[in-house]
Write a structure and sequence with these properties.
The protein is an alpha+beta fold. 34% of the residues lie in helices and 28% in strands.
């Protein structure tokens, strides 16, 4: 069984055990539909990492623990200490072994927010399936990855805090530009990216029909009077 199918099997089993049969059925149908057809549109954002990033305010939740996980051993150590990664633990070891960076916020032992980043090609291949999307790692670029926040902790400023720490680490690694993709219909994430200093520079369209895949990009020229066209 391939690594991809093994991860999907583990995720399905986890959903069935933790969320019940109905959630398993709904998410299973969604997965099967995406195996046949996907059409998604994204905005492309970039961060200039040499520019200082200032948080508008501290997270509303004060009693949290922030962890940067860079090795599978550290992941195991945190799990042994009782940290509950939930479904996000599935596939995490493979990502970390390929060089991906995992940024976590725990409330007690519960994972409240998780972000990923990649500083090399092997790492980004574990984080994104749009293989035509390019990040120029040889030119000190980094991919800021995807994120997920527990619904009960959303709108609390945790993601902005993690992004600031992500930018800090990548800057220390010598990276000068951070890039990311955000779905056009993900308004909440787009607003967070902009508040953190992200600048829109392009659009992308991902189309998948069975085994055929297509990724197309086009630039966006920002007008002086409207610096963030993503918020039109």
């Amino acid at each position: 069984m391939s690594s991809y199918l093994r991860q999907k099997y583990k995720r399905g089993r986890y959903i069935l055990q933790k969320e019940g049969l109905f959630a398993f059925f709904v998410k299973g149908v969604r997965f099967l539909r995406r195996c046949v057809f996907i059409h998604e549109r994204f905005y492309k954002y970039e961060f200039l990492l040499n520019e200082p990033m200032k948080l508008e305010s501290a997270p509303k939740i004060q009693d949290f623990v922030f962890e940067i996980v860079t090795t599978s051993q550290r992941l195991k150590d945190l799990a042994a200490q009782g940290c509950d990664f939930g479904i996000n633990v599935i596939g995490a070891e493979e990502k970390l072994n390929k060089g991906a960076l995992m940024f976590c916020i725990f409330i007690g032992k519960e994972l409240a927010c998780v972000h990923w980043a990649a500083a090399n090609q092997e790492a980004i291949n574990t984080l994104i399936n749009k293989t035509c999307y390019k990040t120029d790692f040889s030119n000190n670029e980094a991919y800021l990855g995807w994120s997920e926040t527990n619904p009960q902790y959303r709108r609390s400023g945790l993601s902005m805090y993690v992004i600031s720490e992500k930018v800090r680490l990548l800057t220390a690694m010598g990276k000068t530009t951070g890039k990311c993709l955000v779905a056009r219909n993900n308004v909440a994430s787009r607003k967070v990216i902009i508040k953190c200093g992200g600048r829109i520079y392009g659009e992308g369209r991902y189309l998948k029909i069975l085994w055929w895949k297509s990724w197309k990009e086009k630039p966006i020229v920002r007008e002086a009077s409207s610096p963030q066209l993503a918020e039109r």
